[in-house]
Design a protein that fits this description.
mainly beta; 24 strands; globular
Length: 265
């Protein structure tokens, strides 16, 4: 399990039982350093990280060695998703850039309407790599796109409105798919994770403001290939693991004095 600490600008690695293994990364301008990041992902045993204030995309090995990098030309990179061919990087505005995964050369620049995406904080691809879910943080909803090569086509979105009602959000920050196409999305100021089916119809939720169990501001999430859902509980300094029924099955960390912002496996 790979966990990113936002303020310490590093990634910590744990085994599947939660035992600490190693750390790498630091604040800086090198290819295996970054200046604060909100999201990263792992594809084919490579780490792809959106270096927000360094305005770059970094690619590292699983032990933190520099592999390649690419400058981001628009706004600040914030969200990142990867499939077999391309790296999709979303920004603090409505912009997205698409790179070749192998070379990191840019192949496409996209700009979305604020009605579809407004501040792209987090995003993820499904297992087939042909659908993308992205959060519209300032738009308080999640949007889904079909993926064809380097092109994204808007498909559907969740209900709009700054609300605590089921299916609505008070600042969504990350999302992901399970192997059945269900979608999970973090709701920052409602302190919860919500589940939707493949048509973006609300199914279930879990979480409320808590200092002992989840959450105090959930910032990052990931669904692994075994449908384990990892959510970072920012101010409780923990990573929580859930099954697809949204039952908590494990916790990593907690009370250690570090703040975590994204979790991957």
């Amino acid at each position: 399990v790979y966990v990113m600490e936002y303020y310490n600008t590093r990634i910590k690695v744990f085994d599947s039982s939660g035992a600490y293994l190693r750390s790498f990364g630091s604040y800086g301008y090198g290819c295996n350093q970054w200046r604060y990041a909100r999201q990263f992902t792992i594809y084919n045993d490579e780490i792809f990280l959106a270096d927000t204030y360094g305005r770059r995309t970094l690619v590292m090995s699983l032990t933190g060695q520099c592999l390649r990098q690419q400058a981001f030309s628009r706004n600040q990179p914030h969200a990142i998703a990867v499939n077999s061919q391309y790296v999709f990087v979303g920004s603090t505005g409505q912009d997205m850039e698409v790179y070749s995964r192998s070379s990191m050369n840019i192949v496409e620049r996209l700009r979305f309407s604020s009605g579809h995406l407004n501040y792209i904080w987090g995003m993820a691809l499904n297992g087939a790599g042909d659908r993308m879910i992205a959060v519209s943080t300032n738009g308080h909803r999640i949007s889904e796109f079909t993926v064809s090569g380097a092109k994204l086509t808007y498909a559907r979105q969740s209900s709009y409105g700054y609300s605590s009602s089921n299916g609505y959000f008070r600042t969504p920050v990350d999302a992901g798919y399970d192997s059945s196409g269900n979608i999970y999305a973090l709701d920052l100021y409602n302190h919860r994770i919500q589940k939707f089916n493949s048509s973006l119809v609300y199914q279930a939720k879990t979480g409320s403001y808590s200092t002992s169990s989840g959450f105090r501001y959930p910032y990052g999430m990931h669904v692994d290939s075994n449908d384990k859902i990892y959510v970072t509980d920012f101010y409780n300094y923990a990573v929580r693991q859930y099954d697809t029924n949204l039952s908590e099955t494990a916790t990593y960390g907690g009370g250690a004095g570090t703040r975590l912002s994204a979790a991957k496996k």
